[in-house]
């Protein structure tokens, strides 16, 4: 908006707020192998947080069990925007995250709507393969 109005101060403010949001998402929601915030057992079994409370974290979501890793990934990717690639800029982590999430995707095609979000992240490092996988989906979640 700052660019549209020619307001350099607003551009600076928006850039700063975006940087803070990216850093906080990567710190609190992304669970990398070297994570020191969460217990080692949680880090071993998770790549993203499902729900972050004031005093605890969960692997579940309000509407999905912990086993549906593809849905947890999707919640962290929504909405897919140009800045999503910046939020998920650690390609090694993204590869681990995609591999982790794909282990929980249901085999029946009627429940594959959340796969599109997994493939959106896969496109960061395997564009053609991800595009073909998205084209093969029978449905997409919105």
UniProtKB/TrEMBL annotation:
Keywords in alphabetical order: Carbohydrate metabolism, Cell wall biogenesis/degradation, Glycosidase, Hydrolase, Polysaccharide degradation
Listed InterPro entries: Endo-beta-glucanase, GH81_C
Domain of life of the organism encoding this protein: Eukaryota
UniProt-listed Pfam families: Glyco_hydro81C
GO BP, sorted A to Z: cell wall organization; polysaccharide catabolic process
Domain Glycosyl hydrolase family 81 C-terminal intervals: 1-136
Catalytic activity from the UniProt record: Hydrolysis of (1->3)-beta-D-glucosidic linkages in (1->3)-beta-D-glucans
Enzyme Commission code(s) on record: 3.2.1.39
GO terms assigned for molecular function: endo-1,3(4)-beta-glucanase activity; glucan endo-1,3-beta-D-glucosidase activity
Family in the record: Belongs to the glycosyl hydrolase 81 family.
Protein name: glucan endo-1,3-beta-D-glucosidase
Species the sequence originates in: Solanum chacoense
Source taxonomy: Eukaryota, Viridiplantae, Streptophyta, Embryophyta, Tracheophyta
């Amino acid at each position: 908006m700052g660019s549209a109005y020619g307001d350099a101060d607003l551009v600076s403010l928006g850039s700063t707020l975006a940087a803070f949001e990216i850093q906080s998402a990567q710190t609190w929601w992304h669970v990398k192998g070297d994570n020191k915030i969460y217990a080692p057992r949680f880090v071993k079994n998770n790549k993203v947080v499902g729900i972050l409370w004031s005093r605890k974290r969960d692997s579940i979501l309000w509407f999905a069990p912990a086993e549906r890793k593809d849905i947890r990934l999707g919640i962290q990717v929504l909405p897919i925007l140009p800045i999503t690639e910046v939020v998920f800029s650690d390609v090694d982590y993204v590869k681990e995250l995609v591999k982790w999430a794909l282990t929980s995707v249901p085999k029946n095609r009627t429940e594959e709507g959340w796969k599109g979000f997994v493939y959106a992240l896969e496109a960061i490092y395997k564009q053609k393969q991800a595009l073909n996988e998205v084209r093969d989906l029978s449905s997409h979640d919105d």
